[in-house]
Amino acid sequence: MKKHNFYAGPSILPQYTIEKTIDGIQNFAGTGLSVLEISHRSKEFVAVMEQAQQLFKELLDIPDGYSVLFLQGGASTQFAMIPFNLLEKKAAYLDTGAWSSKAIKEAKAFGEVDVVASSKDKGYNYIPKNFNIPNDADYLHITTNNTIAGTEIKHDLDSPIPLVADMSSDIFSRPVDVSKYVLIYGGAQKNLGPAGTTFVIIKDDILGKVSRHIPTMLNYKTHIDKGSMFNTPPVLAVFSALQTLKWLKNNGRVEAAQKRNIEKAKLLYDEIDRNKLFTPAVKNEEDRSLMNITFVMNDEYKDKEQAFLDLAAERGIMGIKGHRSVGGFRASTYNALPKESVEVLVRAMQDFEKNI
């Protein structure tokens, strides 16, 4: 039976990425060795790193003066690394979910944190609007897509201060005006590749402005100067990410991915809004994520939740159970998920409704 992978992360990858990664594990770049065992200093792997960085710049139209890094430690390490490098006196944070909340907690260890707005009062089911950004803050941090709550900021904010964004789960899902940001980061394990590497897009001249000592491995300049090769990088994760970047370029680039993502999300949201059994977790359509679509059973059908999950499993639908902190359902519709999988989920919802 064909499986339909809606897991939130690690998540679905293009079949191209999986096949090319298998090839690289068996015989990397014609060397007769596996990418798992070849030196990261070899000319073959150096070419992988350089090509991955270049494709990042090409697909996102990254201006001159920015570096692309592949690091380790996940986005969670970036929660601390960002204020370590950028926070001198005060930083501003927009609190839109569990991950921004964790980032705020880490930043408070380095200086004053101004939470400019929060949607915690309603379970993070909306994006705050019309908040004031303090001009005296070193930067404003936002999380563009919230995987647990299912909300998303789908445009590039205009900020009077340097803008930092966690784009772990929506990078490459839409065009981004990188010039509006000084730093964009995220874990690879959602729209880019397998778990194991973290991407950072950083404006070079934002660095060197804090007075504290920064440990070598936590200093962005270390990794910029060494091209992400100061220490042994996660070679397999970077190699797989490169395959996804190639797949994206060969399939219409970011603009085509955005069009496909809008179509998939509309198909599922329309069914959630129509079906008597379900209700969307995010009521404001403007705030609804295109990547993580969250919904619950209406109150009178709450006892049918497990039965629907069982039906979904029978049809090869994987990973739609909501995050343990909120319950309900979550369908993650990342770039690699085909429209066919959403159609299968919609039919399951329709068939389940008919039998109630």
Counting helices, strands and paired strands, the structural category is: alpha/beta
Largest sheet: 7 strands, mixed
Helix content: 25-40%
Question: What is the subunit organization of this protein?
Answer: single chain
Strand content: 15-25%
Sequence of strands across the biggest β-sheet? 2-10-9-8-5-3-4
Shape: globular
Residue stretches low in confidence (pLDDT < 50, at least 5 long) are: none
Would you kindly provide a written description of the structure presented here, covering whatever features stand out?
The protein is α/β, with parallel strands linked by helices and 356 residues long. It is 35% helix and 17% strand. It has nine helices and 14 strands. The protein has helices at residues 15-26, 43-60, 74-86, 98-107, 220-225, 235-250, 253-274, 305-314, 339-354; strands at 4-5, 66-71, 90-95, 112-118, 140-143, 145-146, 151-152, 163-166, 183-187, 198-203, 278-280, 292-297, 317-318, 329-332. Strands 2-10-9-8-5-3-4 form a seven-stranded mixed sheet, sandwiched between helices. The protein has a three-stranded antiparallel sheet with strand order 11-12-14, covered by helices on one side. The chain has a two-stranded parallel ribbon with strand order 1-13. Helix 1 (15-26) crosses helix 6 (235-250) and helix 7 (253-274) runs parallel beside helix 9. The radius of gyration is 21 Å and the shape is globular. The protein starts with a strand and ends with a helix. The mean pLDDT is 98.
